[in-house]
Design brief:
Shape: elongated
Radius of gyration: 30 Å
Strand content: 35-45%
Oligomer: single chain
Amino acid sequence: MSGKNCEVLLTGDSSGQMYNLAVWDPDTGTFLSSFKGGSSAPHTCTFVGNDYILSAPPEKPLLNAWQINRNEQMSLRMFTPGKVNAMTTSPRGHYILIAVQEQISVYQMSTGRLWCVVSSHYQPVTCLTFTSDGSHFISAGADGQVLCWSLATVLSRRTLPGLPSGQVGKPEPKWSWREHALPVTDIAITAGGLQGKVFSVSQDQTCKAYCIVSGQILLSVAFKIGLTAVTTSINCDLVCVGAENGDIFQLSLRSPPRTVAVTSENMGESSTLKGHKSAITALSLSLDGSQLASGSSDKSVKLWHMKSGQCVRTIEHKGAITCLQYLIPPPGLLAAGGGPPSSGSSWQPARKLVPLLKGSDPNEAFKVNLLSKEDKAIERYQSRQDEVLPSQMQESTSNPENEGKLKELMEINHELYTFSLKHILQKSV
């Protein structure tokens, strides 16, 4: 990783021949590290805090799991209800959402408990993502729906203010956007929590923007070809959209149109990047917006300089690109594969992964396992205390001096009681 750029590029392809996921330096194209074992399905690669990476294989009902500083998969077996269509975790890694067909299962990461299953899509879910503050999550499906869910409503076991009592245990989405006529292929959400904007693209050749606060549709841009991927800049002034023919369209939002529904030709400052030979599968913008990474089913990742619109580097892969993401490397990421302590191989995760449970009892008491590095020290202290206290009590009761003092105190208390009682009765008379 070069000194001028603090970001790395995470990629994955469908072949899994050389690795499942790879980490690259986007400035030089240098291979940095890899995570081995099988391949990952699209829209399933996610981070559990800064400690683990999870993904789902294309055809198996289980998860791939890596400790972030190890390139070999963990021996932990995390089974799912079925083949995973999409998956994401909350920003702090407390919850994981797993979409199997049209159902979304919500698991608690600390216990593996299945907290809730929501189902408002009537065709398979294709995309899942959380808002930056973790308060809401967005789901999109092959039915053309884009749904916004409140995590508090989904997890609640009692009636929340402003919600009907019958909604407990059967959560409904906060907003339902049904403007797409064909399957939604990708979604993106800007930073800002509830103030963020949701962007979706579909095979119906449109890109749409929504407001989480009001639930209104803000913009609908029509193109001449089906759309397959979308990403936005961190300050929400640029949207990049990938198409089925390999083209990438740039839409500037610095001077948005006055009407909601427009065509791509009427967007003003817009341009097209050409270079891929087949459909775009993933897009990701760097934090400063100076670089765009695009992945395609033509087995290549291209890095674009945004100001000039030129492709500055191509990274070849063995299969169609399924994962592509710019990220600031968490501690321990670049030590994957094990190295000397100076490289970060001594880093240890702050949490522990547990298997996912198959079901849960709604009447079961809420439990949380607390893990601490001081568990053994506390046990030793408690065991010594249990050994010492009985002996101290036995010595105190068997000492004749203590018995004499105890009898003396009892006599004094009895005399004080009779004296006070006598004077109180005299005064009352």
